[in-house]
Amino acid sequence: MAAIDLNTIRSTIEGRVATELANDPVISVVFANMPFEPTISSSFVQCLVNFAANEYITQTVSSSTVNSITGVVTLNILSKSSIGSGANLTIAKRLRDLFNREKVSDIYFEPPNGPTLLQSTAPEGYFQSVINIDFELFETI
Q: How many CB atoms lie within 10 A of CB 43?
């Protein structure tokens, strides 16, 4: 029985974000459970990978079975406040293009939802938007 390693999926997604945002202009990326001290004058992206649901696609006694694993990539985009939404939406476009209906390492990404602009930010002092991208992959056991 070979089950998919969830850390492999997470690292594939995070690696894709980190590689894109290492290109010019470079933007800092923070991942779940990672210490980070933001600088108010610079933009950064928080990338969170959440696994949502699993379901049987096929189930047999004598041969392999297939499970569907789904999840959501949440990208919090934080940019300098008081300068409008342009810089934030430019980053959002880069991230949308990175995942929009793509297949990467057998992970199928749906069209992104957002960016959704938020009225209050965490941490304070930033202009924030959020993109959510559903994904699915199939596990053969």
A: 21
Distance, in Å, from the CA atom of 110 to the CA atom of 124, rounded to the nearest integer, reads 31
Q: What is the pLDDT of residues 32-82, one digit of tens each?
A: 988 888 887 889 999 999 998 666 566 665 677 888 889 999 999 999 887
CB 112 within 8 A of CB 131: yes
Phi and psi at residue 61, to the nearest 5°:
-85, -40
Instruction: Mention every residue, 6+ apart, whose C-beta is less than 8 A from residue 34.
Output: none
Place of tokens 């199928």: 108
Measured distance CA(77)–CA(6) in Å, rounded: 24
Measure the CA angle with vertex 80, ends 79 and 81; round to 5°: 115
Domains assigned to the chain:
6-140 (3.30.2000.10)
Confidence category of residue 109, pLDDT binned at 50, 70, 90: very high
Q: pTM (2 decimals)?
A: 0.88
First to last CA, the chain: 5
What region does 101 belong to: left with phi over 0, alpha with psi -120 to 50, or beta?
left
